[in-house]
Amino acid sequence: MRLTRFSDIGLRVLMYLHGADERPGPVTVAEIASQFELPINHLVKVVSQLSKMGWVRATRGRNGGLRLAADATKLRIGQVLRQLEGEDELIDCEGSSCRLAVDCRLRGALHEGLQAFYAAMDRHTLADIAGGGTGEHIVRMHRMFLVTPHTQSAA
């Protein structure tokens, strides 16, 4: 199993915003794109989804930007991944012409494995994964960005 790029970016955005709590102003999409070397068009789609989920607050305009809207101590990584990845089956048994589909146990085993993965991810919160050394690195990223001259556009 491999997470989609969409989920990867979504998790990084949430982690980066979690580290922005002490900042005087909001984080911009351009800043995140620069920090993680991401295409802005794709990042905007991810941020839009995170905003729809209520995890990110996006404010438009000259002084606009992004803030974490969710409580990082309660936001479970499994919950985030379920929303971003979906809970679709790992393989499409209905759409394929597999000769084993009638009496195959693979579908059930894969479903069980996927549920175990999400359950394991539910044991971790955003605060957990964005803390410790990772959190310190994110804070350093914020500081370096704020002291380096950049041309930023609003979120």
Automatic annotation (TrEMBL):
One of its GO terms (molecular function) is DNA-binding transcription factor activity. GO terms for cellular component: cytosol. It comes from the Bacteria. InterPro entries: Tscrpt_reg_Rrf2 (IPR000944), WH-like_DNA-bd_sf (IPR036388), WH_DNA-bd_sf (IPR036390). Keywords: DNA-binding. This is Rrf2 family transcriptional regulator. It comes from Zemynaea arenosa.
